[in-house]
Amino acid sequence: MNMAAEILINVHPTQTRVAYVEDRTLVDLKVERKVSPTIVGSVYKGKVVRVLPGMQAAFVDIGLNRAAFLYVGDIRANVTNEDGLFFSEEEPEADENSTLVETKTEDETSEPRPQIQDLIKPGQFLLVQVAKDPLGTKGSRITTHISLPGRNVVYMPTVNHLGISRKIEDEEERNRLKGIVEKLKPQGGVIVRTAGEGATEADVVADLDYLTRLWAEVQSGYEKRKGPGVIHSEMDVELRALRDLLNEKVERVVVDDPRVHKKVVSFVSQFMPKFKNRIFLHRGEKLLFDLYDIDLEIQRALGRRIWLKSGGYIVVDEAEALVVIDVNTGKYVGKRDLEDTIVTTNIEAAREIAHQLRIRNCGGIIIIDFIDMEKEAHREKVLAVLKEELSKDRARTVVSAISELGLVEMTRKRIRPSLIANLCDPCPYCEGKGYIKQKVTVAHEIFRLLERDAARHRSQASTVVHCHGEVADWIYGEEAESLEQIEIVLGHSAALKVEPNFHIEQFEIKHL
Asked: Which bin fits 204, alpha (ψ -120 to 50), beta or left (φ > 0)?
């Protein structure tokens, strides 16, 4: 049974947040700050700065602080014209909303892919689109294959391709949509999106008319622009969310800002008129997100430990290129036997993990350590639940079988930084390690350094160790005897001076 869905748009002068909720439970979240909006989907005129044959990649200046990264696999071209516009017969990669299952390509061959140094050269201008936002120290990932998303279809002007979203499962509907697109014979490629299910021929024609006009504007902008920079920017986060998420399942779209509400009504009236009566302006005294406890759910998603209703919990550790999730029974003791307790916890954890991956927008390689299960049937049951929950995810996922150790390896397509990367900074005190040295460890580092200095500084009058107050207290309280031994070796006194601004691991030794 489909649960009632709502889209909530919370607007603040410095950021906009869009929450997709089902049965009043947060399912998906987008956060975009005015100072750092996403550039995924934006089209740029780029200039090749450096070609790296050893990596089969290139750095391209697109007018931002950091050069963008172009991999040879993202140069989808058989022919490159003089202006750097690429035209290809190869199958494009599906976006997070549409998975390709049917293709229409010409001249399919098994010839090896050309080397990047044979395709582009330094100083050359290219028309490119951002596929992934900058992440950490990495610049944006770009592609020469342009995809322009509409409401019902994605238009790909640089390829000859037809695709239908895999999430449209009804074969009769798939054939109907395929027939519509083939009848229209668009110049270029088309993917019918999941949102296109049930679309009429007029809906598809309207989409393609708009997108072909947009492509003409992109080409014109490329010709007019002299140097690297943006040609076409993706629309604001609230309009993107409506384009991608608004469907028959959504009962209401609630906006808490009059100006944005007016913009949303105008957009929906133009592109999705049948939904215009579902747009509402929030007028209550209570904050919109507080009505649904969205902020509490966000705080929960920023935590490392997530408690399950049964009393078990999962632990989520997010590294730069890997997410590791551990499942534990916690307070849950079960009702029948150990195996039943483990299976129940794992099934509940599988549902919560899929939920958290969507809210946190985790991407890349994900390792899930389920509690070990003895029976193969139980492992298959847990994996089936995980796959079922992940099937609701708009991002593409690939899941392996559960290993004998209870591990599941999976990938989730990463397009934008995760929620934690978006809202948090690494701890400045531990520098992101997640731990600091113990006081006793720092104390013994000081002693070892003093021992090494003993021979060279026996003639000095005294030694002063500048250190953190907790380290000084530890040495005077627990290691006084060790300090006296050091003073005997040195042949003079060694004093500790507290430095309030020192990091607990920081110390300096001065011989007077």
From this structure: alpha
pTM (2 decimals)? Answer: 0.79
124 touches 81 (CB < 8 A): no
pLDDT digits (tens, 9 = 90+) for 368-403: 999 988 888 999 999 999 999 998 888 889 999 888
Q: Between helices 480-490 and 439-453, what is the axis angle to 10°?
A: 10
Q: What is the pLDDT of residue 85?
A: 47
Task: Say if residues 69 and 141 touch (Cβ distance below 8 Å).
Answer: yes
Residue whose C-alpha is closest to residue 363's, from 290, 301, 424, 413: 413
Contact yes or no for 158/88 (Cβ under 8 A): yes
d(CA 150, CA 193): 9
**Tokens encoding 20:** 């997709």
Cβ atoms within 10 Å of 92's Cβ, excluding its own: 21
Indicate the range of 16-20, 75-79, 212-216, 486-490 predicted with least confidence: 75-79
Cβ within 8 Å of residue 414, ≥6 positions away: 132, 135, 363, 364
* Single-letter amino acid code for the residue at 300: R
Q: Which residues pair with 463 in a beta bridge?
A: 494, 511
Spatial CB neighbours of 9, under 8 Å, sequence gap ≥ 6: 16, 17, 18, 238, 241, 253, 254, 255, 256, 257, 260, 264
Residue with tokens 């009505």: 291
Percent of the chain with pLDDT over 90: 54
Cα three-residue angle 141-146-152, rounded to 5 degrees: 115
Question: Do the Cβ atoms of 385 and 350 come closer than 8 Å?
Answer: yes
Spell out the domains of the chain, with CATH numbers in brackets.
5-36+238-294 (3.30.420.60), 43-233 (2.40.50.140), 303-423 (no CATH), 439-511 (3.40.1260.20)
- Residue count of the chain, please give it: 512
What is the rounded distance in angstroms from the CA atom of residue 220 to the CA atom of residue 148? 16
Mean of pLDDT values over 244-269: 92
Q: Identify which of 281, 272, 277 has the alpha carbon closest to the alpha carbon of residue 247.
A: 272
Return d(Cα 485, Cα 466) in angstroms, integer: 19
Q: Which single residue is written with the structure tokens 């199958």?
A: 91
CA 304 to chain centre: 17
